[in-house]
Amino acid sequence: MSLNTITLQAQNGDPVLLPHEALLFRQVNVECTVTQGNGYPGATTFAATSKQGVLYVTGQRVIYICRPGTTHFASLSVPFAHLKDGYFEQPWFSSNRYHYLVVPANEGGLPGPCQVQWTFNEGGGFDFTHTLTNILERIHEGHANPATVEPLPPYPGGPLDSAGETGASHGQESSASPNPIQAPVDTDAPPPSYEEATRKV
């Protein structure tokens, strides 16, 4: 997690993304609070708050841009590997929130692990949670690029496995001779008499 390290685009104020980084989610009017400590007076060693900003989710990290920013708190960048113990909160009488613990990066501007809370004043909390959860699950499954999921390989021996296809499907004819066509048997006819049975033998 890094504080105040994001470069903004001049034309729209959105963050400048890294090479091969794709934008997956964007939500305006999100409040952000960053604190370190147990929340009691005198026990908090670091605190930063932005009442309004834009929250982004890319294929590599979560980004928050304060609108407007200050020299103390202008932006926040959190790679997915630095997110810990996130959970979504839906209060009865206030806006939805998302909380998590972040581990700071080296020279990231934070003194230590911090609690981050986002408050979604104009909606978007469900979409954010769904997007972030989906990406973290893909990372847990071992995909190198969490924004892309490759199709599963065919099941060995299954109907899509080329090694399990028959020779006829590859244009090869079967060497076994076909079974002769037999006349249907009338199951309702009475059994043959003793003379008819001995005559056929």
Secondary-structure map:
Layout: E1 2-3, E2 23-27, E3 30-36, E4 46-50, E5 53-58, E6 61-66, E7 75-79, E8 83-89, E9 96-102, E10 114-120, H1 125-140, H2 194-200
Antiparallel strand pairs: 1-7, 2-5, 3-4, 3-10, 5-6, 6-7, 8-9, 9-10
Protein name: GRAM domain-containing protein
Region (Disordered): 145-201
GO molecular function: chromatin DNA binding; transcription coactivator activity
Quick tags:
201 residues, alpha+beta, PH-domain like, five-stranded antiparallel sheet, 11% helix, chromatin DNA binding, transcription coactivator activity, WBP2-like, GRAM domain-containing protein
Overview of the molecule:
It is a single chain. Helix content is 11%, strand content 28%. A hairpin with an 8-residue loop joins strand 6 (61-66) and strand 7. The strands form two sheets. Strands 1-7-6-5-2 form a five-stranded antiparallel beta sheet, with helices on one face. The N and C termini lie far apart (93 Å). Mean pLDDT is 75; it is low at 146-185. The chain has a domain at 22-140: Pleckstrin-homology domain (PH domain)/Phosphotyrosine-binding domain (PTB) (PH-domain like, Roll). It is globular and about 40 Å long. The protein is built from two helices and ten strands. The protein is α+β, with helices and mostly antiparallel strands. Residues 145-201 are annotated as: Disordered. GO terms for molecular function: chromatin DNA binding; transcription coactivator activity. This is GRAM domain-containing protein. One of its GO terms (cellular component) is nucleus.
